Amino acid sequence: MRLRLLRRNVLVLLGVVLVVATLFVSTRVLIVSDDDQRGASDSGQIDVDFGAGVKFHPGLSQTVYNGNYKQLVHNADRFPGDPQLVLVVQVHNRPEYLRLLIKSLEKAAEVHSFLLIFSHDYISEEINAIVQGITFCKVLQIYFPFSTQLYPSEFPGQDPRDCPRDISKDDALKTKCLNAEHPDSYGHYREAFITQTKHHWWWKLHFVWERVYAMQGYSGFAIFLEEDNYILPDFFHFYKSMIEFRKNSCTDCDMMAVGNHNGLTDFTRLSNKVLTTSWMSTKHNIGMAISREVYYKLMGCSNEFCTYDDYNWDWTLQHLSGTCISKPLKVLVAQGSRVLHTGDCGLHRKENCRPEMALQKVEEGLRSAKDGLFPPSLVLNGAEAVEHKAHMKNGGWGDVRDHSLCNNYVTRL
């Protein structure tokens, strides 16, 4: 019995070692030679042109690393100079919603001064064409190198030798599945498609602030969006107003939330209103503005983030605020949201998606809200207590392989 347990633990340990070894390559620069690219077999899989001669081939993850190394900024010749605002968009595989986001960006005032960074965990010709069709500002694409698309049948994807989600630990030990020793807090085993979002978010945060060449010397905030967001025309105007308000009236505000989840309800009345409070997952995870200083605070809590048993990055962040980060994160919040959520499909719902209905709803709301856009100044409408908000963790993040992979995004500097 002891020998069998030892063998299982060795298998898990080997998996962790392989991940760490692979990560050592991925978080540093990896150059794929032209000879390597010419030697890639054409087996009917998709090739996507990244520009500058860089091709994506799903069988060769090092080509993704090469894209992360070269970091071709599209439209840089049209819009020279440093960006005035950086938007980072996490993209999976919802092209219809991504089109809506880009449509809203195109209508935003002063968008030509933005740098848009699209962080992909799924590559397709359609998505690539949508992003590279942008002509109104500078665009950079980066690629999460440990996606389930690149690792469909091995960790960090779903290894066929992994334990089924709902098997009991006793039965898992008997069947000798790979991660039998490591269920989550509720007795469930990892599901790769569930864990990917948290991995991607943490990798992206690190990569943007540490690896993106175009961010070197940038002293502003990076605003984090998702592919099913939609921004209002005065997005940049309001962001600049929040920066000024923070400078004059909330110097201890760690973060800003340019959006909220109330949509356009009562927008005209709330358009120029802001409040201060402690950061909460369910309220402030849309249109998050993060500075380099706060990024360093979060990275100082990498182990806590990477081992906390919750598959949601935002609930994990709320846990850190007031625990590992001793002073709870204080956030300046827009009460009239400049970021809308259009997605009626996502991680837990895949069917009957209606992006055209979402667009119709947004456009109707904007017609009634247009008089509230571009307020001349902001008004503080509330200052709530800043305190740690404890919650019940959701599980889904008990596997030591996830912990190790997540931690190594930061340690491989």
Automatic annotation (TrEMBL):
<dbReference type="GO" id="GO:0046872">
    <property type="term" value="F:metal ion binding"/>
</dbReference>
<dbReference type="GO" id="GO:0000139">
    <property type="term" value="C:Golgi membrane"/>
</dbReference>
<protein>
    <submittedName>
        <fullName>Uncharacterized protein</fullName>
    </submittedName>
</protein>
<feature type="disulfide bond">
    <location>
        <begin position="345"/>
        <end position="353"/>
    </location>
</feature>
<feature type="binding site">
    <location>
        <begin position="196"/>
        <end position="200"/>
    </location>
    <ligand>
        <name>substrate</name>
    </ligand>
</feature>
<dbReference type="GO" id="GO:0005795">
    <property type="term" value="C:Golgi stack"/>
</dbReference>
<dbReference type="GO" id="GO:0009312">
    <property type="term" value="P:oligosaccharide biosynthetic process"/>
</dbReference>
<dbReference type="InterPro" id="IPR029044">
    <property type="entry name" value="Nucleotide-diphossugar_trans"/>
</dbReference>
<feature type="disulfide bond">
    <location>
        <begin position="250"/>
        <end position="253"/>
    </location>
</feature>
<feature type="disulfide bond">
    <location>
        <begin position="163"/>
        <end position="177"/>
    </location>
</feature>
<keyword id="KW-1015">Disulfide bond</keyword>
<feature type="disulfide bond">
    <location>
        <begin position="301"/>
        <end position="324"/>
    </location>
</feature>
<feature type="binding site">
    <location>
        <begin position="90"/>
        <end position="94"/>
    </location>
    <ligand>
        <name>substrate</name>
    </ligand>
</feature>
<keyword id="KW-0464">Manganese</keyword>
<dbReference type="GO" id="GO:0006487">
    <property type="term" value="P:protein N-linked glycosylation"/>
</dbReference>
<dbReference type="InterPro" id="IPR007754">
    <property type="entry name" value="GlcNAc_II"/>
</dbReference>
<dbReference type="Pfam" id="PF05060">
    <property type="entry name" value="MGAT2"/>
</dbReference>
<keyword id="KW-0479">Metal-binding</keyword>
<feature type="disulfide bond">
    <location>
        <begin position="306"/>
        <end position="406"/>
    </location>
</feature>
<feature type="binding site">
    <location>
        <position position="228"/>
    </location>
    <ligand>
        <name>Mn(2+)</name>
    </ligand>
</feature>
<feature type="binding site">
    <location>
        <position position="121"/>
    </location>
    <ligand>
        <name>substrate</name>
    </ligand>
</feature>
<dbReference type="GO" id="GO:0008455">
    <property type="term" value="F:alpha-1,6-mannosylglycoprotein 2-beta-N-acetylglucosaminyltransferase activity"/>
</dbReference>
<feature type="binding site">
    <location>
        <position position="341"/>
    </location>
    <ligand>
        <name>Mn(2+)</name>
    </ligand>
</feature>
